[in-house]
Amino acid sequence: MQQPRKASSQQGAESAVLADHLDGTLQALMEPATGFLTPETTVAGALDYLVHALPHGGITYLYVVDQARCLKGVVAMRDLLLSKPGQTLEEVMTPEPFAFRPDTSLSEATQAALSRRHRLYPVVSDDGVLVGLVFGWQLFEYLATEISAQSGTMVGLDKEERSGTSILQAFRMRHPWLQVNLITAFAAAFVVGLFENTITQIVA
User: Fold this and answer.
1) Which residue, 20, 76, 160, 166, shows the most beta carbons closer than 10 Å to its own?
2) Are 26 and 112 contacting, i.e. CB atoms less than 8 angstroms apart?
């Protein structure tokens, strides 16, 4: 399992990917599935696996899979520390964990993540096979991008507008909203003018 990207340049690249997949699916964000073991693996065996795996990348959860790599459960680090060395992962795992499908839309995934707030989510196929992982921070970054796009729409920016959008195209996207905002401003000024004397008396 890979560690979340920490470098600002790398996270900037992730932001660009998110901006280009506002209407995409989780497949655009999936990381390779790692950190999975069989139900018969003991706690001692899992800890030994972690010792050898850590130099190659941090692991947040262990995923318990069968011979067909179908997801059966998840084990948090806390579960390992509080369990006996001879216990199997099947005994200490949380069975039937929440998981996404690769074709889950980013909007749906983000809404689901808001109520769970896990650091990492497994992604399984229709047959239950573990096919990848998605970091929670990626989903929340997508949510921030979506909110930013919605705020921009209110002032005439289009979701499809990018830094490389031509001036003419940007003008066409923004012009209708700018006209509405201008008319609204004139209307507000007109209403204030009608009640100027009343407002002056109240303020005085």
Assistant:
1) 76
2) no
CB-CB contact of 39 with 66 (8 Å): yes
Residue 138 and residue 185: Cα distance in Å, rounded?
A: 39
Antiparallel, parallel or unpaired: β 61-65 and 36-37? parallel
DSSP 93: S
- The DSSP code for 5 is P
CATH C-level class of 8-145: alpha beta
DSSP calls for 155-198: TT--TT--TT--HHHHHHHHHHHHHHHHHHHHHHHHHHHHTHHH
The Cα 133–Cα 93 span in angstroms is 18
How far apart CA 136 and CA 175 sit, in angstroms, is: 37
Secondary structure (DSSP) of 13-81: HHHHHHHTTTT-BGGGTPBPP-SEE-TT-BHHHHHHHHHHHGGG---SEEEEE-TT-BEEEEEEHHHHH
pLDDT in tens, the chain (204 residues): 444 444 444 445 544 444 444 458 888 889 998 899 999 999 999 999 988 876 555 688 999 999 999 999 999 999 999 999 999 999 999 999 999 999 999 888 888 888 888 889 999 999 999 999 999 888 888 777 766 655 555 544 555 555 555 666 665 666 676 777 778 877 777 777 766 666 566 555
